[in-house]
Amino acid sequence: MKTLVHYRHIGYASLFFLITLLSACGGSDGDSSAGYDEAYLQFYNGSPNGATVYLRELDGNDLGSAQFGDSSALLSLEQGDITLEFYRLDADDQEVVIETLSVSLKTSFKTMVFLNGDFSAPEFTTQQFGRETLDNHFRLMATSVMLKETQQYDLYMSEAGDPFEAANYLGTITRGELIEYTFWDGDSDSDDFDEDEYTLYLTEPGATEVVFESPTINFNYSTEYVLVTRDISGAIQNGMIIDVVLNSSVVTAITDVNAASQYRVYNSVNATEPVTLSLTGDNDADALSVTLAPGEMTGFTEAEYGDYRLDAVIADNSLEPLKNKLITLNQSESKAIVLHEQAGALASVTFIESALSQAYDKTINLVNLVDDYSDVDFYLVRHDETIDTAQYRVKGVEYLETETLVVPADYYEIIAVHEDNNDERFLLFRLPLYGFNEESNYIVTLESAENSSGYAVKVID
Question: Same structural domain for residues 116 and 222?
Fold first, then answer.
């Protein structure tokens, strides 16, 4: 195992499925750095309570951006010293500089800048390694951006199908260091890893109890794989993720095959009686049940991952029950279930809630529960905007369709509009200025209502 050059600057029970890591990756025949005749730069955002971070050359070109758990695209630049400026946008779209960082780029080397720590006092760590052309092999490296600075994990790896007892110890993953590992079955031609399918395991240092097990991962690119252990953010607050960073902005998030999931339920049924919902897995005796009054939202409820049968019934039997709806709850995933009425019967619509931090940017799931129109336009209008100038909008949301919008924390009017074939607009509902200022995953619905327009926009957090 090799520690790479670095310098710091402060400012699913087991699942047998295959994850194919998608990326535009370098790699060709040969065993040297030939072909990598430029300097390479990539930024990874690992601060779980922050915002989207942008980078650029100081007083120069924009170089990309990254949300939490994502990276910028790989940049090819000239070698030499470069000063980078990192910034976010506030509610008024003004730039807020986070840090200025000088790095030295080298030909045939990849420089990675990692942002980690609490966003109020962010830490930037720069790691650098030489690139090589590889033939049917890959290189494997790992680092940590966990908030707990002292948190370390021992990394084990086994061939696909083999249990932990047959796994090979690679080394310890440590925050602030990027470690390259050596293949346990290298040969005279290469000590790099053979392209193949593998399983990753994490334990506490020196321990043998597995705290994280990956699904089968297909390492099928002849390139450098960088593993990043990080915290979970957004709707799910507990657990961890291993991000796989390659030579593009596509980052694959690997979850623990044994991690729990969670869900919450909103009752949008326009009735006077409550609705009782049940989720039943492979054991009827362990069914999860909840009763909700009209307009009520449950808190997040943790559940074992798996496939569930959803049933729902209204207390006065005024609507046909909902039976045998299939709901899948995946590991480290949060799902919202919205109960509604459809053609005289209970029905549901579900969607995955955001795993992004809600500290600065707010994720809003917009749901159209009105079947009177083929589509609805939602506008989030700030105090100095109209729907024509509103920066944040989602158009053409069809009945029972869900769309996602990410907006900066601020106050917005929410205006729901239908536009007919003659481009004439009809106001369905106008919700006065509402403050999206909490660290919440927001749901905005358009529902039928007993008012002058017949509709209402509701905000649920």
Answer: yes
